[in-house]
Amino acid sequence: MLQLHYRETGQGTPLVILHGLFGTLDNWQTLARRWAEAGHRVISVDLRNHGRSPHSPEHTYPAMAADVLGLFDQLGLGPETTLLGHSMGGKAAMRFALDYPDRLGKLIVVDIAPRASDMRHQDAILDGLNSVDFTQCDGRQAADDALARHISSFGVRQFLLKNLYRQDDNSFAWRVNLPVLTEQMADIGIEITGTQPFLKPALFINGGMSDYIDAEDKLHGIPALFPNSQVATVLDAGHWVHSEKPDEVFGLVQDFVGM
């Protein structure tokens, strides 16, 4: 169990936020501030091997869920807490809900289903990140140039470059534990299973232009593990629903938590 880095703002009903793969808690800060202003105690978390949280050779969902449990204990979070996770963070949140159901009041999962995900679409990103030679890299532009040879999307590169930081010796590095994530990428795509379903309320939010939640997931995969769940589709949004349609995601979460 690792002691996770987190940022807390606001007072009221606790809402814990878990980011996705290659992300950090900063990805959710605009919405976190809005939910805090709306009356919630918002705790944004860097998952293991990401952001400012510790690195570990293990990157599994049971380990991530145990880390989050440690944070719940550290902060005294009770069973009224809502846990929200996006993508990889959504699978970690599902694992937590299934393993520690008594610690949660509600679950929110953003654009991911329990089924296994094919992670080969991450190959170009891994190739790009691993291609950056930090003995030669003198800043953000040099890193972007190296990434661009593998990743054409400017938006994806800008997202990844949020992981770039300057070390104490003035050299640059990635905040993510790239060797471990590269080695264990297939495990990040594994199916989330459970012997007992999570019976409390759950909200799944998916982007209308994303295929991370499909019709089969809505009919069978999600209800099998989360029978008291609903799926809300945000039209004209892809996988990064919260950054593409923040007002819609803010409203859906606010309505669900307030129910």
From TrEMBL:
UniProt cross-references to InterPro entries, sorted A to Z: AB_hydrolase_1, AB_hydrolase_fold, Epox_hydrolase-like
Pfam families from the UniProt entry: Abhydrolase_1 (PF00561)
One function term, GO molecular function aspect: hydrolase activity
Keywords, comma-separated and alphabetical: Hydrolase
Domain AB hydrolase-1: 14-246
Name by which UniProt lists this protein: Alpha/beta fold hydrolase
